[in-house]
Structure formats: structure tokens, C-alpha cells
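Regression report. Comparing outputs from two consecutive submissions.

Submission 1:
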Amino acid sequence: MANALQQIIREHLDRNGWSYGDLARRGGIPRSTVHHLATTERVVRMPQPATLEGLSKGLGVPLDTVRRAAAEACGIHVYGTGTASAPDASRPADPEVDLLIASVQRLSSADRRHVAALVESLLDRAPHEK
């Protein structure tokens, strides 16, 4: 069964009659990258932001759609942003925050404690750096 990123890529290739090279040229990314993402069942790590932007441009779909599909392909569920349940729905969505939140759930409880301690230390330090 294809992952979400493979499905988006395959759907657009089939619908438009494109090759991997066509999509790569449209998005300004290497053909080998497009081929890898389109054929790899489980993506090991999130593609680079420039790769996601290139896929978005090449496919003609919103960046957030590509980012969410790539995260799902990595086994990370990215929760919706900008909803009423968000702490501040008036602030724009931040994909890095979404990815961090989704990734923390995959850590062991001991690792989550380490992350929490790191965040607390960074927050304590932040006002002094302004």
C-alpha cells in the first residue's frame, strides 16, 4: 500500500501524464529525489524544506499538503493547525511546531523528560537573549 506522499505524487503523474523528470523540472528538484520519494514505502526522515517546496511547486498543491503527506510517510501524524482548539488560533500555523509536537509522541517517556528539560532551559534563557 502506498504512503500518503506516494499517493499524491502518483495521482498527479497519472492525471497529467508526467514522468518523474517532468515533475522534477517543474519543481526545480533532482529527478532522483522525486523517484526516491515516489517509490520508497517508508520515508526514513522528513525531506528537506527545499525538497518539500519543490514538490509543492511541481505538483501545484499547497506546501502544507505536501508537508503533511511527507510527515505521514515518515510515520508522524501532524495535527491540524489554526483551529479553535489551538492555543492562539489567530497566529499563523508553524510547520516546525506541528512536526515537533507530532514527533515527541514517538519518544520514550525518559526521552520526553529530556526534551521537556531542554525546552524549559531554553525558555528560561530566551528573555536574556533579546
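Submission 2:
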Amino acid sequence: MPEAQASHSNELPTAIAHLNHTVVFARDRRLSAGFLAAVLGLEVGAPFGPFLPVDLGNGVTLDYYEKTDEPIQPQHYAFLVPEEAFDAMTGRLEALGVTYYADPNHTEPGRINRLFGGRGAYFDDPDGHNMEIMTRPYVRP
């Protein structure tokens, strides 16, 4: 089986797999997909079977799926966004009456972080998923 090849320099490894889509459970798929699309400045796509997609514009969709028979287990979704779009996104959160936080534990309301030379914020979606917008990817060891 082929493996990603990475040198010991700062080069990125050759991609073997790219995320294409993931399912996001929601009590109301239209409400949750519409919320995220509104915050990120995107559109909700046409239904695809039981799924309602939000196309992130990089070949990945979040496919919202209604799950009403049991509680939703909150997940974390992080979005790398352009620096020039960040203020508009936090402004849309404020207009929607949604509090954003500087930290993933939601202890610093109304603040942003400045990790790795960028800006970031966390917020809950209608189902309690912990969403994150950030302008710089995290530096990993």
C-alpha cells in the first residue's frame, strides 16, 4: 500500500486521501444547515436523498441529516476561513444573537483568539456542535 512521502523539511506530504463529505446530525437539518451557511456566507445545496448539503467550496460538503430518535452527540468542526472574511462572520454571529468565544470551552465570551498569528472563534450551532472559525491552521508538532 502506498504511503504519504514527507521529507524532513517543511514540505507537506503527498496526499493519499482527501475528505469528500461528512454527515452532521441535526434535529432540524434545514435550520442547522441554514445557520452554518449564513455564518460562513455560503449556500445550502439541494437535498440529496435524506441529506441537505453545505458545500464548503473546497470539494468537501457537510451533509446534514435529521436525527430525531435520540439525542445529538455534539461534535467539533473547524473551518479555515480567509482573514478578510473573519470580521463578517463574527458580525453575522452577533446579528444572529449567537455568542462566540475565544476558547473551545466557551469561557471567554465575545472574544477571539490570536493563535499562530491568525484569529479564531468558537460558537455553538443549533444542535450544540462546537464550531470554530480560524484564519490560520494550527501548527502541529
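Expected: both submissions complete independently.
Actual: both completed, but the second showed a warning that disappeared on reload.
Relevant detail on submission 2: The two ends are 25 Å apart (CA to CA).
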